[in-house]
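Example record for the data management plan.
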Amino acid sequence: MASLDEIAPGPGEVATHFSDQRAPTAAVDSELTSPPTRAQETPAGAADEPFWRRALEFESNSVLVALIVMIVVIGGIHPDFFSRSAMLDILQQSSYIAIMAGGMAFLISMREIDLSVGSMFGLTIVLAALLMKAGVPPWVAGLMCIPFGAAMGLLNAGIVQGIKIPAIVATLATLSLYRGLSMALTKGQQVPNIPVGSSFFSVLGNRHLGVPSGVFALIATAIVLSVVLRLTPFGYRVRGIGSNPDAATFSGISIPKVRIQALVLMGGLCGVAGVFGLAFFQSGDPNFGAGLELQVIAAAVIGGTPLRGGRATVAGAVFGAILLTVVNSGLIYFGIPINWSSFATGFVILVAVSIDSLVRRRRRAGSSGLGL
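Corresponding structural encoding:
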């Protein structure tokens, strides 16, 4: 590190000193908005490590290992669990949570949380069902779930920016607001007279090539979100804000703007999940999505997106959602009452987070050369 004598401008260097004073800002901005080079991505000595060891260091490796172990244990005791239909049912059930968990990973990585995701999911389904009942073509009404969800996300962002409160507080209020609106619009009953014979339900609610449409939607969404997170300026800004908000602000990144974009993205993804949820369940039930917010957050955190921000993994969030569904399905196979599902979910979250924390501490210790 240079001493004060070395960096202090001399009598003839004042102009040069002031002309160069913006250089640090440009450097920080470059780090936060540009893709990292291979030298930055690869730790010293990593190039000499075997491929299998580098592969095990992915951010989502812990949850993937836990998922595989859980499936093997349950399937080993109850072989029917390995059946193709059982696996596809698990993927179908987890697809809605997984789609929303991918968006939650963006928010958590920038130290924000949206508690209204379950209510937005349910309200988009109700609104689309009401439009169908009113005579709007099913395809138009169903796909309106996406702009409906984005609009709710924009409202969340407007409250956050307008009142200057954390997203977790604003969305705690809109959680009840959106849920109450669903109940009020339907009077607490399912929306009747939905044209379930429409091609909207047969195309988006059935299986194609033996695979549920929701699973195809999940795969496509996960790929798109991963590309956005890893390869676009928006993704770098999201992670940059979570890593160091002060540095992000200093580099010229508008934190309010990125926060608004992330909340709108979250709402839009709730709408995407709503489209396939409506097509599959063929019902506009105002109770849809109740309690899903905690599962969505849990899936993202279990998957390797830390609450401290700065890092995110969409694949990990997807695996986390599938893991939670496997746990709930396992309770059925073992004959455990469904009332224990919340307990089991909480236990899995605690174990997964503890193991992930232990693995990360050991990895940091090893990389520092302490060998602990």
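Summary line stored alongside the record: Residues 91-315 form one domain.
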